[in-house]
Design goal:
disordered N terminus; mainly alpha; 427 residues; 1% strand; single chain; two-stranded antiparallel sheet; Growth Hormone, Chain: A
């Protein structure tokens, strides 16, 4: 297809029906709705205190843990379906399933309904979340070969920003009836449904032969021009690099999510925040989660993917070790913000890294399966944190242990190199 004969190849990046940037906005809207999952610590704290619930810290964190654990299954199914059926259908179905799970959770009334909370918020919404999450990541890489790092950061940025508005709104809804915190899921679930469907309705892949005029693949920092074989999912799974990248994802996720799952109670217990102040802080920290996805992804285009992951792991490790000693509200907020920034950066940088290593043709299936690292890390981090913190509030033991693991994980970034089937796109 020549660049002069197809309007999809103009410098403005136009596509049939509008600009490719409209697809970015649609992707952000979908990700914003499902990213509200990161406001869970507001609900977890309320479930520990509400009279009909009074859950232990471990019980209160379990619905969130199950949600993250289910993401892999949803992303695997969604990634494969997207490659076969296109992005719109998968995103629409994923958004509906996610909202249905949240709405089911709204019908729980106490500890006797704990199973329904796990089923609705954890299993069902987690599956829908995973199916919807993978779609804009794979789709937008195909529309923006000229801005791979930045665009994957934007593609998942909305997910990180989802808790910015949700946290204070959820706290306000809970405060209206503190003994029924799950009642807040009803209006939230309806809002999530509307937002996800509105965004997904615009999704589509670029036409065959789509190119961006004037763009030639160039070297990432420290590497050679992107080229070489586009791996299938089976071929990617036969490389050691797929497993190394998945391990980096899992370990970085476990570090950041250990704090995210305990953010509200950590703020009150360690730094003395009020309940309302801690909820507001969770919302502010979500800005760093979302911003980190864009900032670190853009940085990785310049310094290289593995150097970026090394920096992310070091910063998370150091900040987590310092966090239990941050009894000053400002110092606590700064350390937590860095952890959230790096956690978000993991998700912003990894899709572009997978694209460098394996190509983007089968990105939905390959990266969708790689998100098992998210689920593994999403289980390990909260479980270690809640188990070590316990009723004795042993924050020093918990966060120091997780911080040391993050620092040790830097070794993986040194060992991970691009497969021989592609030219090195990262140093």
């Amino acid at each position: 297809m020549s660049q002069t004969s197809d309007t999809t190849t103009r410098d403005t990046g136009t596509s049939p029906g509008g600009s490719r940037w409209l697809l970015v906005a649609a992707g952000l809207l979908l990700q914003f709705s499902i990213g509200a999952v990161y406001a869970w610590s507001v609900f977890g704290g309320a479930l520990e205190k509400a009279e009909p619930w009074q859950l232990s810290k471990l019980q209160a964190s379990l619905p969130f843990t199950v949600t993250i654990g289910m993401i892999f299954i949803g992303s695997y199914v969604g990634g494969r379906l997207q490659d076969a059926r296109g992005p719109r259908l998968v995103a629409l179905v994923g958004g509906v399933v996610y909202a249905v799970g949240i709405l089911l959770a709204s019908f729980t009334n106490g500890e006797e309904d704990y199973w329904l909370l796990i089923l609705g918020y954890g299993v069902i919404s987690g599956f829908g979340l995973g199916a919807a999450y993978i779609v804009p990541i794979a789709m937008l890489q195909k529309w923006f070969p000229d801005k791979k790092g930045l665009i994957t950061g934007l593609a998942v940025g909305g997910f990180g920003f989802g808790a910015v508005l949700t946290s204070p709104v959820a706290q306000w809804l809970i405060d209206r009836d503190p003994d029924d915190p799950t009642g807040a899921f009803l209006p939230l679930g309806i809002a999530y449904l509307v937002m996800s469907l509105a965004g997904a309705a615009f999704f589509r892949n670029p036409p065959q032969g789509y190119t961006v005029p004037g763009f030639e693949p160039v070297a990432e920092a420290g590497g050679a021009p992107e080229a070489g074989h586009d791996y299938t999912q089976g071929e990617a799974l036969r490389t050691k690099q797929w497993y190394l990248l998945t391990a980096i994802l899992a370990l970085s996720v476990s570090a950041g999510i250990s704090l995210i799952s305990q953010a509200k109670t950590s703020a009150t217990d360690i730094a003395g925040y009020s309940v309302g102040g801690a909820a507001a802080l969770v919302g502010v920290l979500a800005i760093f989660n979302g911003g980190g996805r864009i900032v670190w992804a853009a940085i990785s285009d310049y310094i290289g993917r593995m150097r970026t992951f090394a920096a992310i792991l070091v910063l998370q490790g150091v900040c987590l070790i310092l966090l239990p000693h941050a009894d000053n509200v400002a110092f606590f907020a700064i350390l937590a913000a860095i952890v959230y920034l790096c956690y978000g950066g993991t998700f912003g940088t990894m899709p572009a890294t997978a694209g460098d290593f394996f190509g983007v043709r089968n990105a939905g299936a390959i990266y969708g399966l790689m998100l098992i690292g998210w689920s593994v890390g999403g289980i390990i981090g909260p479980v270690i944190a809640s188990a070590l913190i316990g009723e004795d509030k042993a924050y020093t033991l918990a966060y120091t242990t997780i911080g040391i693991i993050a620092l040790a994980s830097v070794l993986l970034t040194v060992l991970t190199k691009v497969p021989a089937g592609r030219r090195a796109a990262d140093g």
